[in-house]
Amino acid sequence: MPKTKFQNVIFTLMMAFLMVYAMICYNISLNIGEMSNQVFLMAFHEMVIMWPVAFILEFFVVDNLAHKLAFRMVTPQDRPIVITLAISVMIICIMCPVMSLIATLLFKNAGSQFIAVWLQTTFMNFPVAFFWQLMYCGPFIRLIFRKMFPEK
């Protein structure tokens, strides 16, 4: 969807922000045992670390890898929605375990249970990341992006 490097930066910043913010809110609510209005504010403490990490990872590593993996399943001649979904699914499959690893390292105090805590975090996050990205975050960010950068 982005046509230039600048547009790609803007798109990735927006997508990373909304995905990371939602996932942090979800994880905080799991940790404290409930969702409350306070969670929305608490999430900003982790955002200062996790948003830049997600952006850098996505922009410089995951995007290219996800495209390569997606185009093993689809072709450029497929319908655009199929291509978009294939790329999105590959991004989720890569980003979820990696971001869960980073969150486990930084916020979980896992100690000798590190692998178990990381795997649990990944498996708890994956369904939420999957549906949040495909059903809400992705379409919403693409809508905003199309309004910001209308095709000529």
From TrEMBL:
The chain crosses the membrane at residues 9-29, 41-61, 81-106, 126-145. It comes from the Bacteria. It holds the Pfam family DUF2798. Keywords: Membrane, Transmembrane, Transmembrane helix. InterPro entries: DUF2798 (IPR021529). This is DUF2798 domain-containing protein. It comes from Anaerosacchariphilus hominis.
